[in-house]
Structure formats: structure tokens, C-alpha cells
Amino acid sequence: QVQLVESGGGLVQAGESLRLSCAASGSIFSTAVLGWYRQAPGKQREWVATIGIGSYTNYANSVKGRFTISRDNAKNSVYLQMNSLKPEDTAIYYCKLGSAWGQGTQVTVSS
User: Fold this and answer.
1) What DSSP element (H or E) covers 49?
2) In this structure, are residues 100 and 35 in contact, taking their beta carbons and an 8 Å threshold?
3) 3-state SS record for 60-107
4) What's the pLDDT score for residue 1?
């Protein structure tokens, strides 16, 4: 069973950056498609970014040009570099592999 553990969240001011990490257990990581999602208070969970095998990436319009997803298969980890953060990026951020979800990490952006 895959287990995912996110880290790297915190409180920052608008315009600053954060880098989220997600460490995965299991041997299927190198062939898996991974995603980052987020859920703001009172809102539904939404997709943020996806990274496939190789160089394939895709982003939600709201984060395109500001966020970058990457992976390190040797470390069974996926990352989300978040630049030029906005207050509306405030949410709990989750990584996803197949049907498995991490516990989430809180990102709070103050104005």
C-alpha cells in the first residue's frame, strides 16, 4: 500500500515562495503519475498540477507560470515549487498517487 507524506507548508507573505515535498513509499513510484491538489476553507478540493513519466507536466490555469511540479524518482519524491504566492493560494495541499492521498500540508499566504 502506497503511503504519502507531505511537508514544506507554512505561513508566508504575498509574493514569497514555498517548496512543498511529498515522499512516497512503494516500488511503483517511478512509473506513476503524480498530482498536487489543494482545498481552501469552505471549498472543494481542486487539482493544481500533474507530472507524468518523463517530462510531462500540466497545471491549472490559476497557478500556471507560478508553480512548478517536479519529481526525483531516486528519492521517491515529488515537489511543488510555488513562487509569487497570492492570498488565494491559501489551502491545504495534498499529493496524490493513484488512489492514495497524503495527509496534507497547510499553506497560508498573508496579504
Assistant:
1) strand 46-51
2) no
3) CCCCCCCEEEEEEHHHCEEEEEECCCCHHHCEEEEEEECCEECCCEEE
4) 81
